[in-house]
Amino acid sequence: MIRAWARTTEESSPADAEQRPAPVVVAVDGSDRSAGAVRYAINEARLRGSGMRMVHVVPAPLPESGLWPAEAGDVDYLERAGRGTVNREAARARAAAPDLEIEPVLALGPRVAQLVTASSSGDLMVLGRETRRGAERLVARATTAEVVGRVDLPVTVVPARWQETRIGRIVVGIKTFTSAGELLSHALSTAAARHAAVRVVHAVEVPDLAVDLGVADAYSDDSVAVADRLLEQVVGEWSAVYPTVSVETAVVPGRPDAVLVAAASDADVLMVARHHRGMRHPARLGRTPRAILTACDTPVEVLPLRWTGDGVPLVLESAGEILKN
User: Fold this and answer.
1) Start-end ranges of CATH 3.40.50.620 in the chain?
2) Chain center to CA of 107
3) Taking CA 113 as the corner, what is the angle to CA 111 and CA 119, rounded to the nearest 5 degrees?
4) Which CATH architecture has domain 169-324?
5) CB contact at 8 A, 192 and 244
6) Cβ distance 56 to 46 under 8 Å?
7) pTM value?
8) How far apart are CA 304 and CA 224, in angstroms?
9) How far apart are CA 171 and CA 267, in angstroms?
10) Using one digit for the tens of pLDDT, what is the confidence trace for 51-88?
11) Which strand ranges, in their side-by-side order, compose the sheet holding 197-204?
């Protein structure tokens, strides 16, 4: 049995909701795991001038033998418990942020599908980073990766202990230069709005063959030099579009996930991209983003790429003047 997500009785009116920007959507589970995510979502909602949608998913109960539906009493009990959880979370959030419109939402069904549905009209989705151990942690990690890989808006994964610090720096991890424009545009526009600096990082991984042949150092030096020129070129083009943003670049030898986690240690957020499912990339989330989401103590925002053309799309000022094509 699967029920579509639904607002709880403590929500604001639909007429009020229509007047607000798209909300920040945060997943809550009643545990400490989502505490940092809620604080982060409150901060983002304030920065964006939007409300916040708090979503709690109760998995649909499975029949004991697999041959008949779960009994109605089981479903009703889970729904009542879930409704109590999300309403308690919303009450805590309202006490911490009385200035925000907060919408509690309960969903009953598969976690990934329900979170994807609940995020569909949002502007940003926020998830707590998994902190449990053992097999349960592996399942939760897979759930987080699936949500990040399927949601069609930016998703930020936040450690449970996150507290607002306002360092004023965004780190951007660039994998390939040909598809870097969309992520750079997103990061630089965010930095411009928040008066933050940007550090753009590209990792050069030395292949095992170069190590086996004893030419790892030469390979690394040559690759870094080439990558540095390419990175400077693509970043320079986008820096011209956002001249008020301070931007620095770095090409670092090493495994990409380790390089980016280290680079983000003194940043407000680490931004990386994932390819859209329709862009000849059947895997929703690659190895490097998965590893980063597990290890990074800085919030990690994953941007789904949308541009499908070969050229760089138009970038417009608010007044409509074309800045770049």
Assistant:
1) 3-158, 169-324
2) 21
3) 100
4) 3-Layer(aba) Sandwich (3.40)
5) yes
6) no
7) 0.82
8) 27
9) 6
10) 999 999 998 665 555 544 555 566 788 888 899 999 99
11) 3-7, 102-108, 52-58, 24-27, 124-128, 155-158, 300-304, 269-274, 169-173, 197-204, 247-253
